[in-house]
User: Which sequence fits this backbone?
């Protein structure tokens, strides 16, 4: 039986129903507009752009090689090695609207994070950006060190304190320009190993250190404490830079990208340019991962976004840190092959096998 007959209900009732319907539609539109402007206490991580480490980038009004090398012969390549990024929408000073947050929750390529987790109390947006820039600079230096070690070029290195954070464990103990010689009784000259030593030391006992200050070696101790934020680890509250004396002039031109997660792809790009082998073999290869001067690849955050960003930019192969395999399984976009790597050697061996049509490793369960 039909619910509405031509004469039932009456025209008056039908008109009232239409008016109510339009009112509800208008109210929904007003609510939607209101949600757009009403800030939500979250930030949203999205797939970011990718950059070919073997290609060029625009800097100002000029076009430059992303990686330029002088002092050694370099070789042309046929494919691409793309580093991947994550773009964050929102910060404590400019929060996204609720509609953006709802869309982020509905999109598997995006992640919605409480702003208090992304930016812990006491950490300003400017301080976060400054730390990201220093991490990027360090990752570039360690990538160069790892690549030159792989191709057999010798160099020297040291660690220098940039800043001891106010109210941090090292405030008043470590000073800018201190050169870190030892930590935990071990000679240390790369940022990654220093972080590992701090993590191994924990927060229960002071960490013994030796620094060079104004030409004099000084013994001191710092008691680490847990960091704030999503991934809590023991820290001593300093910004530190790895300074290397390289025999080659290697410049990496990449602005507006921060953090240490591009290190592995920088190192691969340098190796590819310095060796006659064409590792890429015409393939668009993307990837991510931190790297130490010893060539050890570390896991990173936001890898699911980077998988989608890589596929969006035409990559068919993705090099992922072995430690991120658990984050990768079940989230690989169609048409993308993920190859895990624990070291720079692993990555190069896998690319050689891929080029030659040999089997390559994959994440368990992928």
Assistant:
């Amino acid at each position: 039986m039909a619910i509405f007959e031509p004469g039932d209900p009456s025209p008056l009732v039908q008109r009232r129903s239409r008016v109510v319907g339009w009112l509800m539609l208008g109210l929904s539109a007003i609510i939607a507009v209101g949600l757009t402007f009403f800030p939500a206490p979250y930030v949203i991580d999205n797939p970011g752009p990718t950059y070919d480490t073997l290609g060029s980038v625009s800097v100002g009004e000029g076009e430059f090689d992303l990686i330029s090398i002088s002092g050694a012969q370099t070789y042309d390549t046929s494919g691409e090695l793309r580093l991947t990024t994550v773009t964050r929408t929102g910060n404590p000073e400019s929060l996204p609207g609720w509609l953006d947050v709802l869309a982020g929750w509905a999109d598997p390529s995006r992640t919605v994070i409480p702003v208090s987790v992304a930016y812990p109390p006491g950490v300003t947006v400017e301080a976060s950006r400054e730390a990201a820039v220093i991490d990027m600079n360090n990752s570039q230096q360690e990538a160069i060190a790892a690549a030159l070690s792989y191709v057999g070029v010798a160099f020297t290195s040291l660690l220098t304190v940039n800043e001891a954070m106010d109210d941090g464990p090292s405030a008043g103990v470590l000073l800018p320009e201190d050169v870190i010689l030892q930590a935990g009784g071990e000679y240390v000259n790369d940022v990654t190993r220093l972080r590992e030593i701090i993590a191994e030391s924990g927060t229960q006992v002071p960490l013994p250190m030796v620094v060079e200050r104004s030409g004099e070696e000084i013994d001191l101790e710092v008691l680490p404490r847990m960091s704030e934020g999503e991934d809590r680890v023991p820290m001593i509250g300093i910004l530190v830079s790895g300074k290397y004396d390289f025999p080659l002039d290697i410049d990496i031109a990449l602005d507006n990208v921060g953090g240490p997660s591009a290190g592995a792809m920088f190192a691969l790009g340098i190796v590819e340019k310095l060796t006659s082998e064409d590792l890429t073999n015409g393939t668009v290869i993307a990837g991510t991962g931190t790297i130490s001067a010893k060539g050890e690849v570390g896991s990173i955050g936001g890898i699911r976004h980077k998988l989608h960003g890589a596929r969006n930019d035409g990559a068919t192969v993705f090099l992922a840190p072995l430690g991120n395999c658990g984050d990768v399984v079940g989230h690989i976009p169609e048409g993308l092959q993920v190859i895990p790597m624990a070291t720079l050697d692993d990555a190069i061996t896998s690319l050689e096998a891929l080029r030659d049509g040999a089997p390559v490793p994959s994440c368990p369960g992928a």
User: Anything to note?
Assistant: The two ends are 53 Å apart (CA to CA). The domain at 45-121+254-359 is CATH 3.30.230 (Ribosomal Protein S5; domain 2). The longest strand covers residues 42-52. The chain is about 30% helix and 30% strand.
